[in-house]
Amino acid sequence: MAVKKNAAADAAKVEKKEEAVKEAAPKAAAKKAPAKKAAAKKAPAKKAAAKKETGDKVVLQYNGKDIEMKAVVEAAKADYKAKTKKTATNVVVYVKPEDNAAYYTVAGKGAEDFKVEL
User: 84 and 35 in one domain?
Assistant: First the structure.
């Protein structure tokens, strides 16, 4: 019978602890809420840092010319927009220095006039 009394006493202690935890939980959540707001305010600063360029670039040197590849990709996108009035997505550029041109495909589709002079 002593074991049953101890078990009942232990169960009562557990219930009291659970009630104390339940009462403390809303208070703890209220204290953490301002921290979440502060973290949310810091998020835009991280996005601004992510937009910073690394300065890496690829330059093709051929026949005394320096051709920056990023400029070629941007020229291909601008050429596509001028010809189709659509924004280019999934652009692949094929540079052919011997033709002094770069050919491109957009979303896997190409055409004879998808060409940019270097």
Answer: no
Q: What are phi and psi of 66, to 5 degrees?
A: -110, 115
Residue bearing tokens 């094929």: 94
Query: Residue 108 has what DSSP assignment?
Result: T
* Token pair 């052919």: residue: 96
Number of domains in the chain: 2
Based on the fold, state whether residues 89 and 65 are members of the same structural domain.
yes
39 with 71, same domain: the answer is: no
Tens digits of pLDDT across the chain (118 residues): 455 455 566 666 666 666 665 666 565 555 555 555 555 555 555 665 566 667 888 999 988 999 999 999 999 999 999 999 999 989 999 999 999 999 999 999 999 899 999 8
The whole-model pTM stands at 0.53
Give the whole-angstrom CA distance, residue 82 versus residue 87.
9
The Cα–Cα gap between 106 and 89 comes to 6
Provide the 3-class DSSP secondary structure of residue 92. Answer: strand
Boundaries of domain holding 112: 59-117
